[in-house]
Predict the 3D structure of the following.
Amino acid sequence: MNALSFDGYRLRAPEPEDLELMYTMENDTTLWSVGNTLLPYSRYTLRQYLEQSRQDLFTEHQARFVITLADGEAAGMIDLADFDPLNSRAEVCIGLLGRHRGKGIASEALQLLCEYAFKKLHLHQLYVYVPQWNNESIALFEKKGFEKSALLRHWQRSENGYNDVYLMQKIAE
């Protein structure tokens, strides 16, 4: 096993061919409720990102990975975001295309990302913000060793008011 593949799953850097995947995911309004997206992204903006990104965690403070299956099909994306080199931590963000949800793919991708972050990047901590109502995501992160550290009250605005959000953390062993 290398740092970014296991049992047919692979995390790889985004390629120009991933423009439609990114466009679909960034504009999936069902995912907006668990993040901070307010406006759709244009293909032009995403194309510029793909062309200009150096995939350098220290420069861009983020690293994006495409989650691929054994046959090479892209199933979604997983990111390290808000990288903080001083405190050696980063936020985890993950999203799958609808047809790939509920198949264990997110679990495998998260395992790969954690191993990479802790063993190769030597990060001390990974964290994630999960809305209190998102039981599937809470279960996913708990399964991979993340613990609820705080309940952030009225942290995220939604159509129905404000939602409480868990801050979940995983500390390197």
Summary: The mean pLDDT is 90. Residues 55 and 147 are 28 Å apart (CA to CA). Residues 105-120 form the longest helix (16 residues).
